[in-house]
Design goal:
With about 250 residues, the chain is of the alpha/beta class. The chain is about 35% helix and about 20% strand. It has eight helices and eight strands. An eight-stranded mixed sheet has the order 3-1-2-4-5-6-7-8. Helix 2 packs parallel to helix 3 and helix 6 packs across helix 8. The longest helix is centred in the C-terminal third of the chain and has 20 residues, at about 230-245. The radius of gyration is 18 Å and the shape is globular. Bound molecules: iron/sulfur cluster. Iron/sulfur cluster binds near residues 31 and 76.
């Protein structure tokens, strides 16, 4: 079986615990306005690789990853479910820590086959990094082109299955950086019992040159990048709402 791979980074330090071998999958159904990897959007392009080819650089440096493991990101790695499952099956034979960075958009509870595949993948997954892009459905559609319904349902499903999750949230002035939406995210997280961490990331325009070289208009050209302090303040708002909801009676 072959997968479509955009690229591989051999020394990731932010995509899961320890030092990570990070595999960028090709293809994503979302079109987030702040995406800095538009070159991963197009499915069935990139490099065609087998599981052994993808993991060659990992196994040949195994001692280096002793405290970490492998993270798949993209793009949307869950678009290539069979290949991803095959990849994780290989890693689990060697007891390697596995992590999926996903938008959750592929979750489809109405499709039995897709749910079986998901359960198989989750049985081989140690951690999910779940990007919640926006709590307001209408604004989520503007930001990504899709409803957030599946994303939030996916978060609930991961809770049912007790899969550890780190939530990721990007703050963008004029889009997500509003107290009410941040508080809503905190309250939503409080409904779940499997959240292990929260990463709040300031939007940055590093992907801008890619848009230009691909001939796309850069959608956030008038948006100012928030500072690290802004991200820290947003994180405090989310966590205060989370704490208040956890402590609320009933
Ligand atoms: S989900 Fe990720 S890869 Fe896909 S468009 Fe959004 S930011 Fe880009």
């Amino acid at each position: 079986m072959k997968g479509f791979i955009h690229s591989i980074e051999s020394c990731g330090t932010v995509d899961g615990p320890g030092i990570r071998y990070v595999i960028f999958f090709q293809g994503c159904p979302m079109r987030c306005l702040y995406c800095h990897n538009p070159d991963t959007w197009e499915p069935r392009t990139g490099k065609t690789m087998s599981v052994d080819e993808v993991l060659d650089g990992f196994y040949s440096n195994l001692p280096f990853y002793r405290s970490g493991g492998v993270t798949v990101t993209g793009g949307e790695p869950m678009m290539q479910m069979e290949f991803l499952t095959e990849l994780f099956r290989n890693l689990k034979k060697h007891d390697i820590h596995t992590c999926v960075d996903t938008s959750g958009i592929m979750f489809n509870p109405n499709n039995e086959i897709s749910m079986k595949q998901l359960d198989q993948l989750l049985s081989l997954t140690d951690l999910i990094l779940l990007d919640i892009k926006h709590m307001d459905d209408r604004r989520h559609k503007v930001l990504t082109g899709h409803s957030n319904e599946r994303v939030l349902d996916f978060a609930r499903y991961l809770d049912e299955r007790q899969i550890p999750v780190w939530i990721r949230h990007v703050i963008v002035p004029g889009i997500t950086f509003y107290k009410e939406y941040l508080q809503e995210l905190g309250r939503f997280m409080a409904e779940l019992g499997n959240i292990k961490a929260l990463d709040v990331l300031p939007y940055h325009s590093m992907g801008r040159s890619k848009y230009e070289s691909m001939g796309y208009d850069y959608p956030l050209k008038d948006t100012k990048e928030p500072s690290k302090e802004d991200a820290e303040a947003a994180r405090t708002v989310i966590l205060s709402a989370y704490k208040a909801a956890k402590e609320a009676p009933g």
